[in-house]
Design a protein that fits this description.
34 strands, Isoleucyl-tRNA Synthetase, domain 2, Isoleucyl-tRNA Synthetase, Domain 1, RNA-binding, 35 helices, 4 domains, Rossmann fold, alpha+beta, elongated, 16% strand
RNA sequence: GCGAGGGUGGCCGAGCCAGGUCAAAGGCGGCGGGCUUAAGACCCGCUCACGUAGGUGUUCAUGCGUUCGAAUCGCAUCCCUCGCACCA
């Protein structure tokens, strides 16, 4: 009966599927009311984020779903009704994107599907639609693997987020939030592909994935267009200069335009603007009313004067090739005192009289332009730009160090620069403190405007240029003060595992502003009052755990009946609506039974969004008693030390791992190699080790079970007083295991009791660890740490006694139940062979049933320490002893020890001494007592010693009982003496202390 | 840059919140021994240094500090991981 997971695991998968034992039903109290609720139904509702099947499942996902499974199995053993459901998240664009990439024949995508996820060639065509794609991975990957892993999921409740009934539920949620004024209409910048003419996600970008939105301030310089004729000439024209440093408006000395680029005169909203042609297009995308009137090159503005809207000064527009007409408005202002670029450009313009003349500009006019200082910053003189350039020895605009000089000046001026007196109310203020305020003020006065622009060029996968567009949207008002308060209450009321994640939740609530909760396209639920929009994926998945509680019962209800009132009645009760639907009320009871969510297991990455949203929405929509009780953070997975990557094929599929090692090994590795919130590293060598450990366990257990069976017809009689020797008498009985059990139980000796005490300790540790989701700590205790105890026991105990067999059997049975959540296949199989029923039909072991025995544990510690000490001496001296003499401390020493123990964990030396010296017999010994007391105080200090157990101990008897064992260990004669009557050739007996015998080897 | 978390012996990782039983669990690796024809598996012991008596010395990123006592508490420094939004 070798360990062969491939032989036993399929059997259990079938049994679980057929029996439907994980299909959870509310455990209702009797309805007639006769029985009081003494045995109130306990429940556990545990969830994990539903998978997003835009690709296959790998080993990292396997842990994500196995951790809650272990907890679910644990709570079931504790007697709870446990609900562990799962569904499929397919909302949004990733699946659509994946399908598009497949359909356009992208090599990368084909490789991921074919090579990484083993999609058969003739199946690829099924993946050409979003639902087909999702279905494939749901059925062939996720469900298949989850079943193989033995996840105890209630599959009746599965759904996808694109289902009609689910959408009804989400609609109810958003209508409710809308009614409560927690949704707000607004505008937001988005990536917009000018080729496809629609918004695109960061995922759709070919170039510029790191680009950020930048808010340019447009300073509305005025231009009297005297030069041109026609109807457009009469009005004042606005030339909006784009800048990121609006506070420099008083330092402007001139402006630049690209004479060769295309510009337009256009009506923008209510004003007439001169901007680059590209800018006009961008402004259209940014919710501006743009009407282009005339097109020309930048040359038209060169040599003109434009008026600074803040100072009223007229400044000259110079030609410059470095102006990028494709960035912002294509017209820039020049602040040479504070911009190294501008400083150099002005120098070069002054020097190049010829070029100026070509554009009809009087070089003398250019030479008259003087820099104007408007910001004071320590470490620079009047003109920071000049200093920054000269410090670096920069002489031309081609110098690469110009960039660095610019950054230097910008940073220092921003953080430490004080505005000059000309700024009135802002005079003397630091730029960083007042920039926003200054911008707003001038904007309100109409001097400034604004536009968005990327920090770098952005290209769509389709090849089109991506621009910043301002789109109408709906926001969730996560910055609403009351909502925030409730969210924080939800955080403080829940269990955060590990506790050190709690801070991040609070921080996220404070940091969240408004969240745009809709998209223009993708799968999902339409915004109920504006079906052009889809509720985006992070926003449609905040309270869906409630949906699990009823999902399998909704199939009988036509979707059109699932209106707003239906869910109101379901969640808020009969009083909430006029004519409550009976079906909704019935479902409400079910919901009420399972809610709240007891634990949600989810990646710690999701704290800043999903997990906090989850808390927000529960805090708003449900009453406090239904708020989440706990969240367990989960770490990520590595593969052979580096991050997994499906596009590089650097993943392991659960199906492959299960085929190679068996599901139990996969589970045990994932749960035992690190705690859930820590990162784990799938190293095949380590997994192989884990498999061997399980094999060893299996072999041991199988051996024991065989023995039990072999002994079923035979029994030995042990004497009743329970100690030591097994008797010789053998009695034939009728083959009931129980008979031997009863006999064995009555014959327990101290080694058996010790092992059982350790078993009790293990149960305590495992239970506490499981309550805290510490799967590693729990399995370490149950599996590895207990193996250690067993090793000691096998050395120590006489295993041929019935009591030893009984003990080992008891231990095995208990450990199998403790292991059942972790390795359900192996544990159930062995438990059934041993007892006739699977482990999961038993109960989680109760520490009360195998209580600790402090005294026996302490005695055993003494024996083990004595063994170590003797071994140590043998090793250091390099001798092979014939005789080992053990001297137990004299009676008077024991008396001193008891006094020390009396004094508690922090004994006061003086106090102890006076107590001790009160005894005339001890006083006689004077210094020896003093020394001993001091030494013992050192030993005892700070320790929570079990005084009773310690004083109860009979050291001599303990060592004598271990005599046979010690003789075997050292192949020597063992002699035990009380100090007072010692045979003591080397004069060692006197150094004996209580709990610390003296030793002599010879 | 901002926010959260972390740095433990050859490796992985407990311990730290509630300071003493911590030379510091457990696993892996390594060394020695047993079993075996042999290898593997399994079992036992060792695995910071020194030591012919159970001991001593020096360690828990670095440096200060609090304390009778610090891997554990406080401060500073260095380094690492994650998150920074409209996206799963």
């Amino acid at each position: 009966m070798d360990y062969d997971p491939q032989a036993i695991e399929p059997h259990w998968r079938e049994r679980w599927a057929e029996a439907g034992i994980y299909e959870a039903e509310p455990d209702r109290a009797p309805e007639d009311g006769t029985e009081t609720t003494t045995d109130e139904a306990e429940k556990t509702f545990i969830t994990v984020p539903y998978p997003y099947p835009n690709g296959g499942m790998h080993i990292g996902h396997a842990r994500t779903y196995t951790v809650p499974d272990v907890y679910a199995r644990y709570r079931r053993l504790q007697g709870d009704s446990v609900l562990f459901p799962l569904a499929w998240h397919i909302t949004g664009t990733p699946i659509i994107g994946a399908v598009e990439r497949l359909n356009s024949g992208e090599e990368d995508q084909l490789s991921i599907l074919r090579d990484t996820y083993d999609v058969p060639e003739d199946t690829l065509q099924d993946l050409e639609t979003p639902m087909g794609f999702a279905r494939y991975f749901i059925e062939e990957h996720y469900k298949e693997n989850m079943r193989a892993l033995g996840l105890s999921i209630d599959w009746r409740r599965e759904f996808t987020t694109n289902d009609e009934r689910y959408s009804k539920f989400v609609s109810w949620q958003y209508e409710t939030l809308h009614d409560r004024d927690l949704l707000e209409k607004g505008y937001q910048p988005v990536n917009y592909c000018t080729n496809e003419e629609q918004p695109v996600t960061a995922h759709d970008l070919l170039e510029g994935e790191d680009a950020e939105f930048q808010d340019y301030t447009l300073i509305e310089f005025g231009w009297e267009d005297a030069g041109s004729g026609g109807e457009t000439a009469s009005e004042g024209v606005v030339v909006p200069m784009a800048t990121l440093r609006p506070e420099t408006v008083r330092g402007v000395t001139n402006a630049y335009i690209d004479p060769g680029a295309d510009y337009v005169l256009a009506d923008v909203d209510s004003e007439r603007w001169l901007v680059s042609r590209a800018a006009a297009e961008k402004l259209k995308l940014q919710q501006r009313e743009v009407d282009v009137l005339e097109e020309f090159t930048g040359k038209r503005l060169v040599g003109e004067r434009v008026e600074n809207p803040v100072t009223g000064e007229n400044v000259l527009v110079l030609p410059a090739r470095f102006v990028d007409a494709d960035n912002a408005t294509g017209v820039v202002m020049s602040v040479p005192a504070h911009s190294p670029d501008d400083w150099i450009a002005l120098q070069e313009a002054k020097a190049d009289a010829e070029h100026m003349e070509e554009f009809g500009i009087d070089p003398a006019e250019v030479r008259e332009i003087e820099p104007r200082a408007i910001i004071d910053v320590e470490g620079f003189g009047e003109f920071p730009a000049q200093d920054a350039i000269e410090q670096r020895g920069i002489e031309s605009s081609d110098d690469p160090r110009l960039e660095e000089a610019t950054q230097d000046v910008y940073n220092r001026e921003f953080h430490a620069g004080a505005l000059s007196d000309a700024y009135g109310q802002y005079a003397g203020e630091v730029v960083a403190d007042v920039r926003d305020d200054l911008r707003t003020t001038y904007r309100e006065q109409g001097a400034f405007d604004a536009m968005h622009e990327f920090t770098e060029e952005v290209i769509c996968r389709c090849g089109g240029s991506v621009e910043v567009s301002i789109q109408e949207t709906w926001f969730l008002r996560y910055n609403d003060a009351e909502w925030r308060t409730r969210a924080k209450e939800a955080i403080s009321g829940m269990e955060a595992i590990p506790e050190n994640t709690r801070e991040q939740y609070y921080h996220t609530v404070d940091w969240l502003e408004e969240w745009p909760c809709i998209r223009n396209y993708g799968l999902g639920t339409k915004l109920p009052w504006d079906p052009d929009f889809i509720i985006e994926p992070l926003s449609d998945s905040t309270i869906y755990m409630a949906y699990y509680t009823i999902a399998h019962r909704l199939d009988d209800i036509p979707p059109e009946d699932l209106d707003h009132d239906f869910f109101d009645a379901l969640f808020y009760g009969a009083e909430a609506v006029e004519n409550p639907d009976e079906r909704a009320l019935a479902l409400g009871e079910e919901w009420d039974f399972w809610y709240p969510v007891d634990f949600r297991c989810s990646a710690t990455d999701l704290i800043p969004n999903h997990l906090t949203f989850f808390l927000y929405h529960h805090a708003e929509l449900f009453e406090q008693s239904h708020w989440p009780q706990g969240i367990t953070g989960m770490g990520m997975g590595l593969l052979e030390g580096s991050a997994m990557s499906s596009s590089k094929g650097h993943v392991v599929l659960p199906s492959d791992a299960i085929a190679e090692y068996g599901a139990d090994t996969v589970r045990f590795f994932l749960l035992n190699s690190s705690e859930p919130w820590q990162d784990f590293d799938w190293r095949s060598e380590r997994v192989g080790d884990t498999r061997r450990q399980l094999e060893r366990f299996w072999n041991r257990a199988a051996e024991l079970i065989d023995e039990v069976e072999a002994n079923a017809a035979t029994d030995t009689e042990a004497d009743d007083d329970g100690d030591t020797n097994a008797s010789d008498a053998e009695v034939e009985i009728d083959g009931e295991i129980d008979n031997e059990s009863e006999d064995g139980r009555s014959g327990l000796d101290h080694t058996d009791r010790w092992l059982l005490s350790k078993l009790g300790e293990t149960i305590e540790e495992a239970t506490e660890a499981m309550e805290r989701f510490e799967t590693r700590a729990a399995s370490q205790a149950i599996f590895f740490r207990f193996e250690d105890h067993l090793r000691w026991y096998r050395r120590r105990a006489d295993l041929d006694r019935p009591a030893a067999r009984w003990t080992l059997q008891e231990v095995l049975e208990t450990r199998l139940r403790l292991l059942a959540p972790f390795v359900p296949f192996l544990a159930n199989e062995l438990h059934e062979r041993l007892t006739g029923t699977p482990a999961e039909e038993a109960r989680w072991p109760d520490p009360e049933s195998t209580p600790r025995n402090e005294r026996i544990e302490l005695e055993e510690r003494l024996v083990s320490r004595l063994t170590d000490d003797v071994r140590d001496i043998v090793e250091v001296t390099g001798t092979d002893p014939e005789v080992v003499r053990v001297y137990v401390a004299a009676e008077w020493k024991r008396a001193v020890f008891e006094q020390v123990l009396e004094a508690g964990p922090d004994p006061d030396v003086g106090g102890v001494m006076s107590e001790v010296m009160a005894d005339p017999e001890l006083r006689e010994r004077g210094d020896a007592v003093n020394e001993l007391a001091n030494s013992l105080i050192e030993v005892v200090r700070g320790q929570e010693a079990d005084r009773e157990a310690t004083t109860d101990i009979d050291e001599r008897a303990t060592y004598e009982r271990a005599g046979g064992f010690l003789e075997r260990e050292f192949d020597a004669e063992i002699e035990i003496y009380p100090e007072e009557e010692a045979v003591d050739p080397a004069d060692r007996a006197s150094s004996a202390e209580p709990l610390r015998p003296a030793i002599h080897i010879e």
